[in-house]
Amino acid sequence: MWRDATIAHVYYILHNPAYAGAYVYGPRRINAVREGPGSHRATSKVAIDDWDICIKDAHPGYINWEEFMANQRRLADNTNRYEAGHRGAPRKGIALLQAWRSAANADGG
Q1: Is the separation of the CB atoms in 58 and 23 below 8 Å?
Q2: CB 57 within 8 A of CB 18
């Protein structure tokens, strides 16, 4: 049954290496620091270079590996962690309106 895509599903697809035709093992590891009595096993993401197995072109993908990696960099840069050097995605504000107004003036509008 088809449903409208949610942000969570799109996020999952864009971060899934299978989308680029890759088979991977080890993109997440158990985080022992977050484990405690009565808690569920917590996992943390692992950097792509630290994955145990990464077989590129294991099956036909929707995009190639280079596009996948470019998307990962773009998605990481769109996070709003300014202290870590990320620009963040454009949101609300006067700056957006200013860019729209400049584009409209350039088109003669």
Answers
A1: yes
A2: no
Distances (CA, A) of 26 to 29, 55, 89: 7, 12, 29
Relative orientation angle of helices 7-15 and 65-77, to the nearest 10 degrees: 130
Q: What is the pLDDT of residues 57-71, one digit of tens each?
A: 999 999 999 999 999
Residues in the chain: 109
Backbone angles phi, psi at 25, to 5 degrees: -135, 130
Give the range among 8-12, 38-42, 80-84 with minimum mean pLDDT. Answer: 80-84
Q: What is the pLDDT of residue 46?
A: 87
Residue 56: name the closest of 74, 43, 72, 68 by CA. 68
Q: What is the pTM of this model?
A: 0.64
Contact 46, 70 (CB under 8 A): no
What does the alpha-carbon distance between residue 78 and residue 43 come to, in Å, rounded to a whole number?
23
